[in-house]
Amino acid sequence: MKHKNLLLIFTRNPELGKSKTRLAKTIGDQTALEIYKFLLKRTQEIAVKVNADKAVYYSVKVRNNDIWDSSIYQKYQQFGEDLGVRMKNAFKNGFDAGYKKVIIVGSDLYDLSSKIIDNAFQKLESNDFVIGPAEDGGYYLLGMNFLQEDIFENKDWGTETVRKDTLVNLKDKKVFLLEMLNDVDVFEDIEHHPAFQHFLKQ
Hints:
Layout: E1 5-11, H1 21-27, H2 29-47, E2 53-58, E3 73-77, H3 83-96, E4 101-105, H4 114-123, E5 129-133, E6 139-144, H5 162-169, E7 175-177, H6 187-190, H7 197-200
Parallel strand pairs: 1-2, 1-4, 2-3, 5-7
Antiparallel strand pairs: 4-6, 5-6
């Protein structure tokens, strides 16, 4: 443990037919897989610059020889029956290991930057929680100074109510909201985005 801050990165193992399934309905499984691998690499390039310890949580199986260098990233498998439980367990691991500030991000956000994540850690100096709101009603980043378990419970994960319901749980806490960004889930998210045009022209 070099830092008091920990960045958690939730990833899905990139498999054909299981990556970006909503996007694949429009562009096909192969292109959806290529886009997800592109987003994973983008996330890795952003994360490596963040001033914190880093832990990658894999959806299915921990991989040793992949883009996540074991000398930089702690590696774990996600554990729990839904996304909320898996995130709660990852945060708990971080706090149990002695970290003071823990932030989680996903791996499907092209517009995220290391500056945004470093700023989120900074905001935790004077706030209890920090949330990066996503345009679809969820969040692309969640950070905290202590574990509050109810924010991971009774949520319809993947729907537009997640952020609203989370903020209800945090109504008596000091919460900082970052800028709104758009994660990549469906075709409309990438249709006009310059970074994805070469995938769509294949």
